[in-house]
Amino acid sequence: MIGRDEQTDQLEALQEEVEQLRRALGSHALVDQAIGVVITVGGLRPEQGWEVLRHISQHTNIKLREVARGLVEWPTRRRLPEAIRGSLPAALEHARTQAEAADRGDEREVRCGLPD
Length: 116
What we know:
The chain is mostly helical.
């Protein structure tokens, strides 16, 4: 039989897990919306939209969900955070280059982004 303290601990652990899952679900929806913004603005495919978000996050040291939030709020705020705005053109170009390399079957460029 489980003691009262053990039940309380289990309940608290389950409540924390539920909260983490709720946050993850919200972040996932936000990222999906940001991908929609990027593919609309950049004329890209969905997988390229994901690459743009990832590239911006890695090159600005901004968490991916915060990059996504900035992009999703861009139309209503009528401004894009400076770091994201500065990184967006390079990220779009990077995604296009990667996709072109993949279409050509040039695995070296797809793997590292730069020719040997």
